[in-house]
Amino acid sequence: MFAIRQFPYTVCMNRTLIRPFLLIQASLAAICFSVEGFCRFVLHLRYPYDCPIFVYQGDFFPDFILLIDRLFVHIHTLAFFAPGDRHFMYPPGATLLYEPFAILPSHRVKTYVTLLILDVLVTGFLFARALIRRGAEPRQTGLLVTALILLSYPLWFEMQRGNTEMFIWAITAGGIWAFYRGKGYTAATCFALVGSMKIYPAIFLGLFLSRREYRPILYALGLMGVITVACLWMEYPNVGISLHETLKGLHTFEYTYVQHKFPDVISYDHSLFTLYKRVVQPSLPQLARASKLYMPLFGLLGIVLFFTRIRHLPFSNQVLALTVATVLFPPVSFDYTLLHLYTPFALLLVLFWNRAVIPTGVRFALGLLACLVSPLTEFIHDGHSLEGQLKAVLLTTLFVISLVFPMQEAVSVTADERETELPAQIPQRQATLA
Predict the structure, then answer these.
(1) Confidence of residue 397 (pLDDT cuts 50, 70, 90)
(2) CA-based max dimension of the chain
(3) Measured between alpha carbons, how far is 392 from 380 in angstroms, rounded to an integer?
(4) How many whole angstroms separate alpha carbon 136 and alpha carbon 67?
(5) pLDDT value at position 7?
């Protein structure tokens, strides 16, 4: 551990970085609970006026229970592909997340909650350790991490829904950190694993493109293929039938959630496409046509932005831009995916914790990140929360900031700072000096 005295301005800098973030997050949480508490106990109103998360009629862990107790108990048989609300609507790699729970004879929900809490504690510990190695005071760091966990709206939503996004986020964050430390194939393995589970995290393979490292990309794509085939076999021994039924499930998801409008679902969906649904209010035929154009259009836009702008930006900007893209541009993106925003948040804090000058882009980004991980469910119109659409606007603003404001680390460092410099920083700093 490095003592505080090595960084005489650390306390000042951590207050500059963290105090506005915590103030915004705590204030928004207090406003939300005050407004919704008043609605519940004074006005005697019920959902959606009385709770900051998607809870009604005692609905807890519905995603987990639906998949495990009604679907994964039939894995490796044709019953696994039952139609209706039990249809498996994920890429094949997602079976790796659920199958271990399905083989348990009992206490599946308790095991899920235990692992989720353990995931939170481990990632919180690793984040705290990184800050302490940068010169942060241990006690203050512990309080910071505790506050971040307790005030995390995406974490509340994740636990209430019983989703597995927390595990996907942890693997993705581990891949980004491995890339930063110069462990390319470890990062590629992480990106391949999560890419086979939900596809969109594979976008982080673009980090290798920015450094013209092509072998890890080929390795990751090959590994994704192997994992996909293996998981198709896990679903049902005939891979061809399994692939056909899995594609049917993905089409069912598109038809149900992309090409239709369910007000309660839209309230907690911060996708840019869902913002279009809410604002334009298209008819179902118009919505179906728009959904067919949306992904090719934004896929092309993303490729153009990456090669013309993103790949030329500092590493912090790249991670921020790619992360926002993964939670904003998919046609459906529920609020538990906001957990991924903690990766650029942690990265910005670690990289700029003891810097004498904080770039304007970092300040703007942290302020928006504070709003995005806070509850905004008290904003209600016509009986439905506007939380998802407000966050779509905030995410769009954050994406623009990641493109416009370079967040380059300071070139001049002290000898003490150089001792804590991570391996991947050295060639980057030498290139900057050159």
Answers:
(1) very high
(2) 66
(3) 15
(4) 42
(5) 43
Of the chain, the percentage scoring pLDDT greater than 70 comes to: 88
- Give pLDDT, residue 57: 52
Q: Which single residue is written with the structure tokens 């800050």?
A: 131
Residue with tokens 């990184």: 130
CA distances from 240 to 7, 99, 205 (A): 60, 20, 28
Asked if residues 97 and 80 have their Cβ atoms less than 8 Å apart, the reply is no
In the predicted structure, residue 432 carries a pLDDT above the cut 60: no
272-280 and 387-404 are packed helices; what angle lies between their axes, rounded to 10 degrees?
130
Q: List the structure tokens of 189.
A: 């393995």
For 259-284, the pLDDT digits (tens) are: 888 888 899 999 999 999 999 988 88
pLDDT at 55: 56
pLDDT > 80? residue 423? no
